Amino acid sequence: MNGDWEERVRVRAYAIWEREGRPDGGAEQHWLMAGEELRAEDAGMVNPGDEAAPGTPGTGEDICPACDGTGTRDGKTCTNCGGTGKVIEGIGGA
Ligand SMILES: [Zn+2]
């Protein structure tokens, strides 16, 4: 099912490109980032609110904006951070 993987990477690479403000060029970099993000997600390392896998250069933990760091929303586990109360976000001008 290699085609599925490539489609996932393509869609994610596009999302990263939009996330970064649609810069000219950098498609190859976005493609690589997309692959890394998807692999991390498949390994259960990343939550939907995370912008990158833990340990990614230029990123750091921040309080989950969806649940204000509590890990729960409306009495349920926060889906944005997976209940951790934290998300991985880009920091600085990386
Ligand atoms: Zn949360």
Question: Which small-molecule ligands are present, each listed once?
Answer: zinc ion
What share of residues are in beta strands?
5-15%
Query: Biggest β-sheet, characterized?
Result: 2 strands, antiparallel
Helicity level, as a percent range? 25-40%
The SSE string, one letter per element, is HHEEEE
User: How many structural domains?
Assistant: 2
Number of strands: 4
* Integer average pLDDT: 87
Structure commentary:
With 94 residues, the protein is of the alpha+beta class. The chain has 2 domains: 1-45, no CATH class; 48-94, no CATH class. The protein has 2 helices and 4 strands; from the N terminus they run ααββββ. Helix 1 (2-19) crosses helix 2 (27-42). The longest helix has 18 residues, at 2-19. The model has no long low-confidence stretch (mean pLDDT 87). The site of zinc ion has 8 residues, from loops.
Structure described in brief:
With 94 residues, the protein is α+β, with helices and mostly antiparallel strands. It contains 2 helices and 4 strands, in the order ααββββ.
Annotation keywords:
2 helices, alpha+beta, 2 domains, two-stranded antiparallel sheet, binds zinc ion, globular, two-stranded antiparallel ribbon, 94 residues
Summarize the topology:
Layout: H1 2-19, H2 27-42, E1 59-63, E2 72-73, E3 76-77, E4 86-90
Antiparallel strand pairs: 1-4, 2-3
Zinc ion is lined by residues 64, 66-67, 71, 78, 80-81, 85.
